[in-house]
Amino acid sequence: MSTIIEKAREIVEVNGMSSKITLLQGKMEEVELPFPKVDIILSEWMGYFLLYESMLDTVLYARDQYLAPNGLIFPDKATIFLAGIEDGEYKDEKIGFWDNVYGFDYSPLKHTALTEPLVDTVELKACVTEPAKVFEINLYTIKPADLAFKEPFTLDCRRNDFIHALIAWFDIEFTACHKPIKFSTGPHTKYTHWKQTVFYLREVLTVEENEQVQGVLSSKPNAIKKRDLDIEIWYRLETDNPIRTAEGRCEYKM
């Protein structure tokens, strides 16, 4: 286990707070608290794509076991968003790279590369569509089983362009504060270490302003590694032009 708790104890002591702050080391599911209920649960549990390697299951366990009636959770709300982006140059670099690796054809690896989402910073100008809210978490009511979800989405195209990938990010809210506080991990705001998650599509969508990309986002914990994710995206370009009609389904592993 980490030894950081020893430094934490020293910090508590030198600040004269030993009689007010109790530090416990161990897994939440295994430690025994010296009191039956708590008034507040505070945790930074979020992972990439909000749920990858997240500790949300542990927070929900603590909520169900220890949170007092009318107790508070910080943060208490999280929302996943999607948008479509133009990213042809980088997609060619990441995926097309396997067509010619120092003169050798490694194209069988292209499928593997497509199934691995990329965590990176995306510029706002790359966004071809408006963002769409896809999945919302209320930490007071959500159950662990709800973290496996399948939700529809609609992306409204801002301009004539190409869509090479969909990106996901999340917003976090502290609604119980005396002044509600929130922050976003999207491309429209300041950098965070969560960045954005990029899901490259197999084909390029040629879109025009005011058209829509409709689809379904599915995510569930991996059957073997519970903190990993199995993600599927179904998509269809809604257009009156039969030449540009496109739809597909992609699977990803995080």
* Class of secondary structure makeup: mainly beta
Q: Please count the helical segments.
A: 4
Shape: elongated
Q: Determine the N-to-C terminus distance.
A: 25 Å
The biggest beta sheet is recorded as: 6 strands, antiparallel
Helix content: 10-25%
Tally the beta strands. 12
Order of helices and strands: HEHEEHHEEEEEEEEE
Unreliable stretches (pLDDT < 50, length at least 5) are none
Note down, in words, how this protein is organized.
The protein is mainly beta and 254 residues long. It is built from four helices and twelve strands. Strands 3, 4, 5, 7, 8 and 9 form a six-stranded antiparallel sheet that branches. It is elongated. The protein starts with a helix and ends with a strand. The relative contact order is 0.16. The model has no long low-confidence stretch (mean pLDDT 93).
Keywords:
254 residues, mainly beta, six-stranded antiparallel β-sheet, four-stranded antiparallel β-sheet, 4 helices, 12 strands, elongated
What is the element layout, followed by pairings?
Elements: H1 4-14, E1 38-42, H2 56-66, E2 67-74, E3 77-85, H3 88-94, H4 108-114, E4 118-120, E5 132-138, E6 149-156, E7 161-174, E8 181-184, E9 196-207, E10 212-221, E11 229-238, E12 247-253
Parallel strand pairs: 1-2
Antiparallel strand pairs: 3-5, 3-7, 4-9, 6-10, 7-8, 7-9, 10-11, 11-12
Question: How would you concisely characterize the structure shown here?
Answer:
It contains four helices and twelve strands, in the order H-E-H-E-E-H-H-E-E-E-E-E-E-E-E-E. It has helices at residues 4-14, 56-66, 88-94, 108-114, and strands at 38-42, 67-74, 77-85, 118-120, 132-138, 149-156, 161-174, 181-184, 196-207, 212-221, 229-238, 247-253.
